[in-house]
Amino acid sequence: MYRQVLGFYCGYIGVVSNRKKMEENNHIPIVIGNCRPFRIIERETDNWNPTLEQINGKDYDYVKLHRMSTFIDIGIAPFSLGIGYDGSLVLPATKDFATKENTLEKFNQTLGILLLGGIYSESVQPDNISYGTLFFNGYIKIHGGSTGLIAGFHKSIRSKLVGTMDAISLLNPKSISTDEIEKAYKKGKEIFDKLNNLSPNMLLDGTSHYVKNQWSESLIFLWTSVEQLINQIWEKEVINKEIDGVIEGRKSFLKDFRTWTTSARIEALFQQGFIPIEVYKLLNLARKTRNDFIHNGKQLNKEKVDNALTGLFELISLIVSDYKSTTKLAETLNTITQNQRGELFPKKTKLEKNKVTHWLETPAIPGDKHWGDKEYEIIDELVLQPLKKQE
């Protein structure tokens, strides 16, 4: 692992010219990104299995949570992006990644590629980016820079200062192997290489807002991604199509967005058979929803944004399958919808015994049946009064 770290970061450590200096400078500055969901990234020999007693007693292996698990080539040679055992994303604090904007773009670009490769993640947000240290022995330490709850969670579990409610996340968390990550990145990269116009960051932002029920933000990102893909098909199948004897200026005419709006391009591509009718319907519903929201501020809901989400992934499937299938990304789409946050008021109010594995008693408050007869403060003007029944 020591060689691996040096190999990936040798370009940044160029100032270290001899063994003595290496011993004095045994680390490099890094930038760290954290996102949902929390997962353990395991190598073949790893096994994360602390007991409930160890977690409650803060006696779990906190050192392992500081360790790197793998590095992947994301096209920033001679460097690579590192992934920690606790799922933290790591980039070297070079000039290219000296701002949150640049690191955010690269983190989310990577996660967007992994999403299409089959590994679900939500986007890293600016307040969950930290700075820290990567030691040559392959361990990372978070110092500061972030104010987000997710970054705070990762720092707290590493320092054993995690609260009781958050600590339960360490019990039987989901895990992903380093091999799965490498395969997913390769698969996702192959898909994105066919999507010349699509921004992986834009895609990831759209799906991340979707699972959090942030409909307006999700719609904007998803529809922008749709337009990017429509433009790609339009350029390939219409603008760049070689036709003998065409008049001069044809390509400039077809590139004109004022004449060939997205809606006009969708219609033309549908009539030429590049977009099947089921996708055509979804895109037109999504377009109408987007226009109603932008121009009239009409309220959005899940059903309306679903059209944009499904239409987008079916468009991706069409492009990567040479217009033969709309279901190539069906599994990824299903994973996104499964991770959507629940309704405000759960339909099931009582859990079955086999659904509950651990209990945690919460402190009683006045009004709870087990409060007892203990005294507490009462402010008369805040006490609720029954409404009189109107005749």
Low-confidence stretches: 1-20
Shape: globular
How can the largest sheet be summarized?
6 strands, antiparallel
Structural class: alpha+beta
Strand order of the largest sheet: 3-4-5-1-6-7
Rg, Å, rounded: 26 Å
**CA distance, first residue to last residue:** 80 Å
Count of the domains: 2
- What would the average pLDDT be, to the nearest integer? 90
Report the oligomer.
single chain
Which percent range describes the beta-strand content? 5-15%
Task: Give the topology.
Elements: H1 2-9, H2 19-24, E1 27-33, E2 40-42, H3 52-56, E3 68-72, E4 81-84, E5 89-92, H4 100-117, E6 129-135, E7 140-144, H5 149-159, H6 164-167, E8 175-177, H7 178-192, H8 200-211, H9 215-239, H10 250-255, H11 262-271, H12 277-296, H13 302-320, H14 330-338
Parallel strand pairs: 2-8
Antiparallel strand pairs: 1-5, 1-6, 3-4, 4-5, 6-7
Can you describe this structure?
The chain is α+β, with helices and mostly antiparallel strands and 391 residues long. The chain has two domains: 2-192, no CATH class; 200-338. The protein has 14 helices and eight strands. The protein has helices spanning 2-9, 19-24, 52-56, 100-117, 149-159, 164-167, 178-192, 200-211, 215-239, 250-255, 262-271, 277-296, 302-320, 330-338; strands spanning 27-33, 40-42, 68-72, 81-84, 89-92, 129-135, 140-144, 175-177. The radius of gyration is 26 Å and the shape is globular.
